[in-house]
From TrEMBL:
<dbReference type="InterPro" id="IPR001251">
    <property type="entry name" value="CRAL-TRIO_dom"/>
</dbReference>
<dbReference type="GO" id="GO:0016020">
    <property type="term" value="C:membrane"/>
</dbReference>
<dbReference type="InterPro" id="IPR036273">
    <property type="entry name" value="CRAL/TRIO_N_dom_sf"/>
</dbReference>
<dbReference type="Pfam" id="PF00650">
    <property type="entry name" value="CRAL_TRIO"/>
</dbReference>
<feature type="compositionally biased region" description="Low complexity">
    <location>
        <begin position="34"/>
        <end position="45"/>
    </location>
</feature>
<feature type="region of interest" description="Disordered">
    <location>
        <begin position="1"/>
        <end position="58"/>
    </location>
</feature>
<dbReference type="GO" id="GO:1902936">
    <property type="term" value="F:phosphatidylinositol bisphosphate binding"/>
</dbReference>
<feature type="compositionally biased region" description="Basic and acidic residues">
    <location>
        <begin position="1"/>
        <end position="16"/>
    </location>
</feature>
<feature type="domain" description="CRAL-TRIO">
    <location>
        <begin position="151"/>
        <end position="316"/>
    </location>
</feature>
<dbReference type="InterPro" id="IPR036865">
    <property type="entry name" value="CRAL-TRIO_dom_sf"/>
</dbReference>
<protein>
    <submittedName>
        <fullName>Retinaldehyde-binding protein 1</fullName>
    </submittedName>
</protein>
<feature type="compositionally biased region" description="Basic residues">
    <location>
        <begin position="23"/>
        <end position="33"/>
    </location>
</feature>
Amino acid sequence: MAEDGSRSKISTEKATSKPTTGVKKKDKNKKSSSKASEAAANGSAIPSKELQLQPTQPPKGFLPFSHNVVTPEMEKYAAEKLNETEETRTKGLEEFRKLVYGDPDLHIEAEEQLALIWLRSKKFDAKKAFDFLKLGFHYVESYRYLLERRDPEIVRKVHSLGMFGFLPYRDPDGRAIMYARADKWDASEIPAWDAIFSGLMAVQDAGHNPVNQIIGFVVILDLKDLKIQQVLAMSRWMIFGTVLLQRACPCFLKAFHVINIPPFYKIGWKLVKPLLSEKIRKRFIFHKSSDLSTLYEHIPKDILPPELGGNVPFTNEHWSKNIDKIEENYYYYLSNNFMKSRRKNKTPTSS
């Protein structure tokens, strides 16, 4: 996984959607809404009945998750933090392609969109980007039997349960927010690998957005109702996922916010922690279960779902609208960009 400890300062555009005009509520409902707002301000749980009274108008001043246009401010950030300018981009692409096409064990098309993902992850050092590419492909090859399986029903089922996805709006720095919920996962119904497979597909899809390549992601991991059986079921794959994200994922994961932490979370953390670099360990932020105010210091509750005290429901709309395209792109990426010996694929000559 690409690493960059600096926090971006990307100002966001205000939402253009106009607030919806609603019918006035009765005084009784106003009191309930007031209670819900007070509870949200304190970071405490809000009764489901009162959640229905929360406003649904889009928050102002935040970019939507679907935003894929690199703004002038983002270009400035890329130049300062990623060493990306027109000159370094042209030079980096040229050097990167020479390394790719000159390697006898690689059989890929170093198209610009793909090459830029790896170059940005290593701040346009073509040699480091190339080495990272090869390391990633070697790792993918080791698990191709798992990563390349085609079972769209698994992905659709995981998606329908709302186990994870991206929130509708980006944080104040323009970063996409991935949201994962333990309470939506039944380990007896959804095997751990099915959950991870679907998650990798989501991250891979988001990783092709140039805004995400430049600004990065943050993660909210909600461990509410996490069961020991889930930890045990996920233990093997937590190690796989941790190594994969660091060795084969050219993306900037800026922060991991862990909330609603159960007492036995240390079991999983002890498995994962030794595999993480020191820089990545520092990006894990553990919040007290009884107080989400510390989470709001990083991510405004204006863009969080109601269960976290916010006003914007988590609907996974991006997946609902684009699931077929997401799957198509995922398999295209695996099929057209992988480690493959040219020598092995040459037609044998008769002696």
